[in-house]
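About this split. The held-out portion is used to measure sequence recovery: a designer receives only the structure tokens and must propose an amino acid at every position. Recovery is the fraction of positions where the proposal matches the reference. Here is one held-out target exactly as it appears in the evaluation file.
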């Protein structure tokens, strides 16, 4: 039995992960903005074998709400075995280029709020001296592409933060996994002109995440072929790369 905190619990990937943990009889503390979706997610997980589920509504960009959320989580679970941070948005790059406020809000959605939560949770895990901190970042953070460099910048910041945090918490028996999905079939990507052969189902990505957490993988590309794709993209020379429409 695992005690699992999920922030962004109503997202497609988080829900798919939770279903796998529910089948193991886990206890959950689920956090999201939408109460109705939270209730629907909880009902689904109970039907799949979850033991106890506590729901908490919170906007992750409200940093002042984070400590209260963690206090309630610890009151419900006593200890956190797995914390999965899965919230985020896919911003409109053109809108970010035209409006500073939009750019900063999207950076908060995908970067600053994640770092704030990781900072708070890291101290709890350091006290526990056990557990896994899992963060959904993105392959977009591996290189700044003109089509989504605001989003990529936020994800790159999260991944760099995770690398340092992993080295810090390893010394006290806590694992940090940086999860980098490629294209996934979710409401966030619905309608985008993506190559079908590269688009994964949330269930496939969830299986990779659960397995990666169990095996204490440091950086998880999912599906795995994205590791090769991003290796190639990272090594394209800058004079060539800046001429590409990626």
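Reference sequence for scoring:
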């Amino acid at each position: 039995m695992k005690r699992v905190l999920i922030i962004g619990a109503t997202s497609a990937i988080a829900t798919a992960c939770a279903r796998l943990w529910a089948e193991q009889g886990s206890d959950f503390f689920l956090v999201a903005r939408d109460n109705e979706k939270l209730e629907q997610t909880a009902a689904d997980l109970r039907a799949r074998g979850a033991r106890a589920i506590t729901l908490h509504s919170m906007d992750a960009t409200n940093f002042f709400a984070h400590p209260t959320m963690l206090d309630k989580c610890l009151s419900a679970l006593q200890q956190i075995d797995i914390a999965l941070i899965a919230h985020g948005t896919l911003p409109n790059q053109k809108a970010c280029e035209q409006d500073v406020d939009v750019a900063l809000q999207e950076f908060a959605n995908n970067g600053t709020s994640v770092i704030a939560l990781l900072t708070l949770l890291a101290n709890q895990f350091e006290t526990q001296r056990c557990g896994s901190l899992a963060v959904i970042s993105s392959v977009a953070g591996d290189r700044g592409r003109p089509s989504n460099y605001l989003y990529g910048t936020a994800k790159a910041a999260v991944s760099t933060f995770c690398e340092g945090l992993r080295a810090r918490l390893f010394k006290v028996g806590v694992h940090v996994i940086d999860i980098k999905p490629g294209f996934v079939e979710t409401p966030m990507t619905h309608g985008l002109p993506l190559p079908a052969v590269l688009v994964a189902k949330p269930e496939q990505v969830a299986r990779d995440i659960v397995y990666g957490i169990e095996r204490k993988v440091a950086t998880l590309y999912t599906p795995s072929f994205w590791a090769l794709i991003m290796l190639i993209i990272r090594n394209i020379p800058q004079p060539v790369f800046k001429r590409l429409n990626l």
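Annotator remark: The chain has one domain: 3-241.
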